[in-house]
Design a protein that fits this description.
This protein has one domain (about 40-180). It is about 80% helix and about 0% strand. It has helices at about 1-60, 70-90, 95-120, 125-145, 165-180. α1 runs antiparallel to α4 (about 125-145), α2 (about 70-90) runs antiparallel to α3 and α3 (about 95-120) runs antiparallel to α4.
């Protein structure tokens, strides 16, 4: 009888230790996951800030003048935007911002090519340049609305779960149409 009591006590002790170990492991996993989520939100927040800063520079430096220097400057900014957009798209498991940056980069490349071919810009180039700067201006409020937690300000809390992104999809569709329309005769 004494042996059965010792065995039962030992099994209870082992069960308690195993439950305690499992609880500790689960808590550690939870803490790591929370840490990873906070780290990803921080990375996303920085990337969003850099994207917005570059788009705001494109919009604020647009004075209506289409010059090869302005196209080159926009191209540099869009290259940075493209890299940060890839980070955001990966963090949110979407493919929304990077295609826009790619389309805008394609427009600037077409503008540079046209400038070299025609020794200046055409009316189509001016329309494409205007579409690019207008799209940049339209994208800024969409990013605030879609990628930041409601009620937070710039530099606030980036949201890794995005909803209601139809405006970005429409903007990208418009840029794609602009690109396909600009490949025609000049």
């Amino acid at each position: 009888m004494k042996w059965v009591q010792k065995k039962t006590a030992f099994l209870l002790f082992v069960s308690f230790v195993l439950l305690w170990m499992m609880a500790s492991i689960l808590y550690d996993l939870y803490e790591r996951r929370q840490g990873n989520k906070m780290e990803m939100e921080s990375i996303a927040g920085h990337s969003l800030y850099r994207i917005l800063s570059n788009y705001e520079e494109i919009v604020s430096n647009h004075n209506g003048q289409l010059t090869i220097q302005s196209v080159i400057a926009i191209n540099r900014r869009l290259t940075a935007i493209e890299a940060y957009s890839d980070t955001i798209d990966r963090a949110t498991h979407t493919n929304l911002l990077n295609p826009i940056a790619n389309n805008m980069l394609e427009i600037t490349k077409n503008l540079e090519k046209s400038y070299r071919e025609h020794n200046g810009f055409t009316e189509t180039d001016r329309a494409n340049y205007s579409a690019l700067t207008n799209a940049s201006a339209a994208l800024i409020p969409l990013i605030y609305k879609i990628y930041y937690t409601a009620g937070s300000e710039e530099g606030g809390k980036a949201s890794l779960t995005i909803k209601q992104y139809e405006g970005i999809v429409e903007l990208n569709r418009s840029l794609s149409e602009q690109l396909s329309g600009s490949s025609g005769p000049r």
